[in-house]
Task: inverse folding
């Protein structure tokens, strides 16, 4: 079955998914929508797709099976609810929302409409984390004691690639990945968060948001995790992202580094598992499998709600300079 797909938001991720939908044998890209019609046109015309500046008009005129929503971080609610009410299945970019109210409203709309919906926590399909999940679920290296994660990106991201960066933060944009991975890898619920942040470099170049945010989460079993994210790595970085993730367990440890796309599993014998660089297509295929095989969502809206609750508390901690309970 070929599913008719559309994209709302033709930015970094929207352009990537438009091309994926156009090239995948299981999907047909029928429309691209963006407030910037010229940008929508650039992503639609090469594939013969329709162009829209208003997603409401698109839902009225097109017969769609699914829509990928990649609007800026604070603006997912309206298009998600419109898609649900139109009976269209949804894949929405992370974070699900920047307020708990918006996250819950979207989840209620999806439940009411009965559509299938996932949040694009794409790193759940990133090969080092896929293998790490398998190792942790096997019990081979015992119980998780602590996590140390660093996800930083080039200053080009908030200054050149995201014109709306001042309406978001490095936590909404990057911590959302790291924190979701901790929840997914460990199956543990966070109970508190403490965060500190710095505003210096980006403010000086006219982008009023945090350069960096560090956060400490405590989980229900007493384990903890430290998360680092910054948006000011130098432009000369070999790649736009520096992502390192360490999981300490009672019987071993996992060390992941997406710069070299390797996972180094350390027990009594050191072993290395080689992986590949790109996993975006694998993530989309998993979503299509969920639609076609009646599987439960692999990155559900309740997962997105929980992630939003943690991040809202994190930002509250930045303001109060105190530990915030969840």
Result:
């Amino acid at each position: 079955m070929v599913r008719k797909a559309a994209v709302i938001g033709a930015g970094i991720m929207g352009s990537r998914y438009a091309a994926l939908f156009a090239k995948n044998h299981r999907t047909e890209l029928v429309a691209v929508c963006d407030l910037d019609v010229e940008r929508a046109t650039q992503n639609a015309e090469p594939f013969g797709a329709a162009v829209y500046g208003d997603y409401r008009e698109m839902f009225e005129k097109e017969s769609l099976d699914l829509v990928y929503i990649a609007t800026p971080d604070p603006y997912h609610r309206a298009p998600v609810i419109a898609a649900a009410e139109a009976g269209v299945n949804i894949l929405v970019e992370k974070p699900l929302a920047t307020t708990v109210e918006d996250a819950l409203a979207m989840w209620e709309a999806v439940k009411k409409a009965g559509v299938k919906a996932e949040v694009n926590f794409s790193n759940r399909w990133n090969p080092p984390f896929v293998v790490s999940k398998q190792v942790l679920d096997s019990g081979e290296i015992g119980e998780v004691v602590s996590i140390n994660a660093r996800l930083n990106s080039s200053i080009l991201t908030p200054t050149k690639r995201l014109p709306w960066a001042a309406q978001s933060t490095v936590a909404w944009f990057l911590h959302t990945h790291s924190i979701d991975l901790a929840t997914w890898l460990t199956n543990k619920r966070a109970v508190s968060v403490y965060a500190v942040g710095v505003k210096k470099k980006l403010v000086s170049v006219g982008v009023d948001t945090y350069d960096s945010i560090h956060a400490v989460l405590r989980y229900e079993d007493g384990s903890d995790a430290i998360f680092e994210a910054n948006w000011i790595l130098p432009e000369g970085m070999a790649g736009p992202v520096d992502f390192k993730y360490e999981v300490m367990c009672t019987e071993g440890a996992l060390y992941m580094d997406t710069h070299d796309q390797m996972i180094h599993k350390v027990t009594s014998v050191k072993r290395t598992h080689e992986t590949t660089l790109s996993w975006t297509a694998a993530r989309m295929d998993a979503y299509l499998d969920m639609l076609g095989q009646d599987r439960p969502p692999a990155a559900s809206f309740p997962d997105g709600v929980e992630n939003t609750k943690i991040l809202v508390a994190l930002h509250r901690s930045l303001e109060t300079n105190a530990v915030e309970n969840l």
